[in-house]
Amino acid sequence: MMMLALSAMTPTSVAAAVRPEGPLRVGVPRAPTAQLLRSPPQCRRVQPFSAGKRRMLHVQATEGAAAEAETAVSPGDSDDDVAQAAQVLRTAASAGAGVGKEVVFKALKTLEKKRLKGGEEWYKGLSGERSPGRRWRLVYTVGKDELQKDLRGERPAKGAFFPLLGAQRYDPAGKYDGTLENGVFLGHVANLVFSGPQHYTPKNKLVFNFWRIDFKVGPLKFGFDIKKGDKDAPFDPNDKGLPFFVFFYVDEHICCARGRGGGWAFWARTDPKWDLEHGII
Length: 281
Hints:
It is built from eight helices and eleven strands. About 30% of the residues lie in helices and about 25% in strands. The protein has helices at about 1-10, 35-40, 50-70, 80-95, 100-115, 120-125, 145-150, 270-275; strands at about 135-140, 160, 165-170, 180-185, 190-200, 205-210, 210-215, 220-225, 245-250, 255-260, 265-270. The protein has an eight-stranded antiparallel β-barrel, surrounded by five helices. The radius of gyration is 23 Å and the shape is globular. The chain is an alpha+beta fold and about 280 residues long.
C-alpha cells in the first residue's frame, strides 16, 4: 500500500523546492552625522528592485543558509557534533532547498552514529504526552540501496526532500501506547490517512500497524476498517512482520528514524495553525 511505502522510507528520486520564509530585509547605510548637517536635504525617488535583483538576493540568501549548514556539519570529535547536526536539520526543515541534500545526509549520518538513547523521553517528545498528540511533517528521505552504497564507500548518498505533504501524528491516548496516524494531504482538496495502534520500546523502536483508512475529498469524508481489531487480530508488538521506526534523534522541533525498509527519514513538528493552513485539520 502507498502508506506502507512511505513508512518504509524508500523513495529515492524525488525533489522539493522550498523557499526561505519571510521577506528579505536590505539595510541602508547611514551617513555620518557631520555630513548630514553639511548636506542640504534631497528627495530622490526610490526605485523598486528589478526581478533580476530579487532573484540575486534570493540566491544569496539560500546560498548563505547552505554555507552555514556546511560549516555546522563539519566532522569533529567534540560533544557539540549532535547539536550542530540537529541545527542543520532544523535549518533544512525551514529553508528547504537552501540546504543541500548531501549536507542533510551528513547530518543524519552523524546523529545515527552517536547511538543516542532517548527512551521514554523521546516518546513523550513525539506525542506531547496528551491527546490528540503531536503531528510531524515528512521533510526528507533516503532509501536503503542509496544509503548502503554510501556506507560501503561506493557512492555518496544524497537522498531527497519529500515533494508532497506527508505527515504523521502520535496520539498517546487509547490502548497500547496510543494511535499512529500517517497520511498524505493535498491541501484542502483531498487527503488519505491510515491509522492504527502503536507501541514504543525503551530501545527507541516504535512498532505499529494500520487498522483503518480514511479519505477526505472536499467536504466529503468517509473511511472503513481494514482490520477488525482486538477480537480477530490483536495487536502484538512482538510480531516480526509489523512495520516500525527506530528513532535515533528526537527533540522539540525534529525527529529522525530508520524504517523497517532500511532507509532514513526526518520530520519537522507542525502546529495547529500550520495544520489548518495546509488543510490537514
